[in-house]
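User: I'll paste a sequence; please echo it back and then give the predicted structure.

Assistant: Echoing your sequence first, then the prediction.
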Amino acid sequence: MTEQAYPIGTPGKKWGPEEKQQWLAQQLVRRSYQEQVVTKLAKLPSYFETEQYGQLNYADLPVIKDADNYPLFVIKSVQWDNQRPTILITGGVHGYETSGVQGALQFALTEAENYIRQFNFVIAPCLSPWGYETINRWNPFAADPNRSFYEGSEAQESLLLMEYLKTNEISPLCHIDLHETTDTDNSEFRPALAARDAIVQKTWNIPDGFYLVADAQNPQADFQTAIIDEVKKITHIAPADDNNELIGVPLQQLGVIEYDAKPLGLCMGMTDAKYKTTTEVYPDSPKVDERNCNDAQVAVIRGALNFILDSERHA
């Protein structure tokens, strides 16, 4: 695939405030965060509670009159025990990546019961509710929350969760960040990024199947393998391309690549968790459907937790 023209901006020139406002003016609310996410929180089992950790005040944006203010919630273990390891699960950092949000909720509503006595859980199912409603990768200011996890971040989606974890002294043993790679990465989000930053987009690969992104500074290869083995029971793993790569990054093992998480400002890099991974489900494959995608995200969590239980037991 070759570079696509984007209808906003001047080729070779980075976007300024005017171009970002043009982009924002094109965005529409397409689904309901309240109906598809918040209402499910009322159905949580008794061993979980919800806690609001912030709010995105976007209702006054001049070009989106119907945008709500978005309360941000975590799902947290009621019987917190400092002797137990803590598991952090995040979804919807990129709001358009639906199975990350719904997979996190599905785990909390169905399978968390099997692990609630072994772990403390903090689950943030939808960090970017405006992105969820408008089916967007960016926030309203054309910033990518998954490149914004650093001190003093201007992306509230990123900053508010970091502040919550710091204030509550939550240091997870494991962080699982649930994402998707979609065909719209090529049709919309990569061209928009190239236009916004005045760069040439060299990577157009969309892997057909599931894969993981490990932290290059602490890859924990056996941990990643255990997750892949569990996900294989649910859906297909993305094969490497002819260069033995996925999305332009060298393959480390079946279905696993690595990014240097902290310097890139990735959600996966915001803590010093021993075990961490970022999932990538491919919802546009003809081999999957919505349920399969959500089930794959739950399988990731199950595989990770089972590995930790086994590893810590034999440590």
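The chain is about 35% helix and 15% strand. The chain has a mean pLDDT of 95.
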